[in-house]
Specification:
Blueprint (H helix, E strand, L loop, with lengths): L1 H16 L2 H10 L4 H23 L10 H25 L2 H8 L2 H12 L6 H17 L12 H21 L8 H19 L12 H25 L5 H8 L2 H11 L7 H31 L1
Helix pairs in contact: 1-10, 1-11, 2-10, 3-4, 3-9, 3-10, 4-5, 4-8, 4-9, 5-8, 5-12, 6-8, 7-13, 9-10, 11-13
């Protein structure tokens, strides 16, 4: 029963994140800048998360002068991911920006190899190769549809993958004993400070706050920064890490579907094939790694 509840909440969290492109594209269509959207988003996220933290009376146990800056720096990676991810959407179709950001999967494996000295297993290397093959098809290279698209968009997209992989890597190392909601709220403060510093010139332009900007920022905030961490905090402890990672990959098809159905972006059969290969590669890596650990325990 707990396992089913965990699966449901993890799926809800990943599914929510898949809707953020809709609101980001909506904001750009209203004429708002990357800075305006990110500033209002981060302020709303911080306010909502801290309101929940204080209402819930979450524990501040484990918080100290050393790990508070570390948590906030970790949060800066979320701020950077938001900047690069939405930045990519200014220049590229949402579906392509999503696929580029999803490269965090194999980038995270490389980071673990470099910094934690965890050498990827053969099954993991095979998964990375399959992911890259999937990207080839999903990006529609064969049809030449990416020709003429600004290089800046691709740069932002791949940077969002690196910063998101960095966030996942650090979040698994920094202050893991601190209450998840409290830690997420502190990360939001770090993200907010970073965004305000980078887009200082845009601060005067958000006042008076227009309804369209508020709607856009509230959407990306709820579906990108508030609901997913809350759902993950509830669901992730109830399922294994490998299963959680497989479940979070639902974000990719949800985001692609929302881009197709709501933003009217055309997704070709070859792109769907590429997406299926990426999802299969993630599942192969996680299930293969789990089987390897089980065998090791039996034999050891």
């Amino acid at each position: 029963m707990k396992g089913n509840k965990g699966i449901l909440f993890v799926l809800l969290g990943a599914g929510c994140f898949g809707f953020t492109p809709i609101f980001a594209k909506l904001g750009f269509s209203f004429g708002y800048s990357l800075g305006q959207i990110n500033i209002v988003q981060m302020i709303i996220s911080s306010f909502l998360l801290w309101s929940l933290t204080l209402l819930k009376r979450s524990s501040f146990k484990g918080i100290n002068k050393k790990n508070v800056p570390q948590i906030m720096v970790t949060g800066c990676f979320i701020g950077l991911t938001s900047i690069f991810y939405y930045g990519a959407m200014q220049y590229l179709p949402a579906s392509l920006a999503i696929i580029l950001m999803f490269q965090f999967v194999w980038i995270g494996i490389i980071l673990e190899w470099i910094f934690s000295k965890i050498k990827p297993a053969p099954i993991t290397i095979l998964s990375i190769i399959l992911i890259l093959v999937g990207v080839f098809f999903a990006s529609n290279l064969l049809n030449g549809d990416i020709q003429g698209l600004p290089l800046k968009g691709f740069l932002f997209g791949i940077l969002s993958a690196f910063t998101y992989a960095g966030f996942i890597f650090l979040s698994g190392k920094v202050a893991v004993n601190v209450d998840p909601l409290t830690r997420t709220s502190l990360m939001a403060i770090g993200s907010t400070i970073l965004v305000l510093a980078l887009f200082m010139r845009d601060i005067p332009s958000i006042l008076p706050l227009e309804a369209n900007l508020l709607t856009t920022a509230l959407g990306v905030s709820l579906f990108g920064a508030v609901l997913p961490p809350l759902f993950f905090a509830v669901g992730a402890p109830l399922v294994s890490g490998g299963i959680a990672n497989i479940l979070t990959s639902i974000e990719l098809p949800v985001a692609i579907l929302s881009a197709s159905l709501i933003l009217s972006e055309e997704i070709t059969p070859l792109q769907w094939l590429g997406i299926a290969i990426i999802l299969a590669a993630i599942a192969l890596n996680e299930l293969g790694s789990s089987l390897f650990r089980v065998r090791k325990q039996i034999n050891g």
